[in-house]
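G., the chain you wanted modeled:
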Amino acid sequence: MLASDLACALDPAVFAASLGIVPDDWQAGVLRTRSKRLLLLCSRQSGKSTTTAVLALHRALYEPNSLVLLVSPSLRQSSELFRKVTTLLRGVEPAPARIEDNRLSLELANGSRVVSLPGSEATVRGYSGAALIVEDEAARVDDALYEAIRPTLATSDGDLVLLSTPFGARGHFWDAWANGGDAWERVRVTADDCPRISREFLDGERAALGALAFRSEYLVEFVDTVDQVFSSDHIRAALDDGVLPLWGVA
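Predicted structure as tokens:
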């Protein structure tokens, strides 16, 4: 029992297996990474939320006094990710003692907390010293919320994981993916990489959704959204750093 618990503590992929989850190769890589900043650009239903729920629970169980924050565009979405964490927790044996356990947060006897937060920057400013932040559906999270959550890592040397399908070439998730450089480890998973998604299902989705939505949701391409008035290429072509603005320059 001690050897098994030690193996789970040292290897989050082994911990996932102990909960009945057989990780795909990319999931095992994410669970074992040492990167402090991680971008998961993943197809719908590829297992990205389950992977990060395992990460969150592993951090809370095996690193006492850890604060894990779950952030999404809405409280409902954060609650769904939190529910995955609590469901996984029920599979841990022996069951860890809990000090607090409610719809939005839990606290373990080892001092660790997992908290799901609404999609508003005002709700995150009271937190500090986060060991891990998981931002779900990051492409749809408001940039102001992202900017407000990052300082909670300032004194903790904590980890930041952004996971999402694309939502056009805009926002902090796209910017980190396209322009973040070596500060980020990037993992890209299309529907074709997921053995649980059949070719027949994808063919039906391609016909039902149309090319743009299918490429975004399942091929994880940063294509323009259907409601854009101007294409991203046209907007970028209209910009010129060599032209000074007509006003506002001293």
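Residues 2-195 form a domain with the Rossmann fold fold (CATH 3.40.50.300).

Shout if anything looks off.
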